[in-house]
Amino acid sequence: MAIRPDKYLRFLGVPPLFGTERTKKILSVNPTIPPQREEARDVKVFVHDFNVETIHEYEFDNVSEVFRFKDNKNTTWINIDGLRKADVEAVCQHFNIHPLILEDILSVNQRPKMDEITDIIYCLLNMLYYNPTSNTVEQEQISIILGKSFVISFQEDAKRDVFNPLRDRLKISNSKLRQNGSEYLCYSLLDLIVDNYFVVMEELGSCIEQLEEDVIRHSDTRSLARINKLRKELIVLKRNITPVRDLINGLIRSESDLLQERNTKYFKDISDHIVQANDLTENYRDVLMNIQDLYISNVNLKMNQVMKVMAIVTCLLAPPTVIVGIFGMNFDVIPFAHTHLGFYLTVFMTLVIPAVMLWIFKRRGWF
Predict the structure, then answer these.
(1) Is the pLDDT of residue 310 over 60?
(2) What are phi and psi of 50, to 5 degrees?
């Protein structure tokens, strides 16, 4: 019975080489498995209640505090950082949100999508961040619910998002956010998420540029590992960007009363950005494929150089080997074998013939 070392090495706690553990995280997506989401320790609720003249900002630790904003005359943005099942159920029940949307909010690794149920429009997509420490693309699922006079956003991470520019614009009294309703607020949230995709792609573009420079200068096994790692990050990027195009197109084609025709041009602008981001992702993938081909070419070139040197050395050693072999035979009659010039003639031939061959090789440009 053959012994398989790899069967037992995994019990030794040897860390995976070249970041191969990232592959499992990227490919382990199964929507049929019930989500195992950890309950958030802290939940922060931020409310921006505004109209053209005034704006009020609130911060709560309990989601029940937002129930009073349902039927007021202002436009309300409720941002809930941190997900707890009980809190999400309470909010959905109070704002008459369908149970299917509730399941999607609590889901894990969902594909970006848009749903329209009764008088609610639901958008699910991922915010992307670039981690410079691990050089990976991190994602955070966000759910955006558009109602008649409110927008509710659910975030997983309470420590970061991309909405600070939106908060700053809300403080400006004559801004479009203050003058328009919840529909424009929903557009602004989606627009900031999509715009941040380009920030992440710029970081990956810098890594690809540096990788190309390193591969040209010196190619080794770690270069191939870096190429493979960046290709995985592009998979994450493309998986999150491509479906957003269908999400935005769904909003553009929607006939819901929540979406006014005069604001369609704003969602078309997001659609243009998504198309551009998708094309840029394809370009990055092509560049990585070219870098991989360049790496393989460099490896083959080095191998050819080594083989060329070995072939030249073999050719140079062939004549001396033949000459020494002839004069070393055990025959009685060998020319110059019994004269004092025989040794010097043999040494002379073993030196001159390789030198002449080396000159011929150099003249022909073989090295």
Answers:
(1) yes
(2) -145, 160
